[in-house]
Fold:
Amino acid sequence: MDESAEVGGGFNVDDRQQQYRRQDAISKPRNAVAAIEREILQEIASQSGRYGERLNALLDELAVLRQTLDHTIAKLRPDQVSDAEVSPALRTGITQYNRLRAQAQQVQHYLIIHREAMGFWNHDDVFRCYPIPAALTLLPSTHTPRPPEHP
Structure:
């Protein structure tokens, strides 16, 4: 019999390795699940960032197009322009503007979905950082706004 075993001070390396393997095997599923969850959240956050970048690009395009349209509209004189004379380019520009706006709304919606997947439920920051302007409508020249009638 081994003397160290009799004294009670024996140290068996194989027993210690087996003990650590058991502890590692017990904790591995928890570590693996945590690693997968972390990876999923990182991917969701990364995708949210890409949606934010795309939304910024769309809003920049909208701003540039809006300046062009405002400049074109400013050249029109309401008393001398009929509906038939309104530039087809202006109508096309307004249509393009509204399509870009719809794309921006869709990307903003996807960004909100991704934020909710990460556990963020308040989206005030999204609306504040990425304000989507109102749609444009080309009104006929005969349109003159009147105050509401009171009974």
Remarks:
- Helices lie at 3-7, 13-75, 88-117, 124-129.
- Residues 1-6 have pLDDT under 50 and may be disordered.
- The two ends are 112 Å apart (CA to CA).
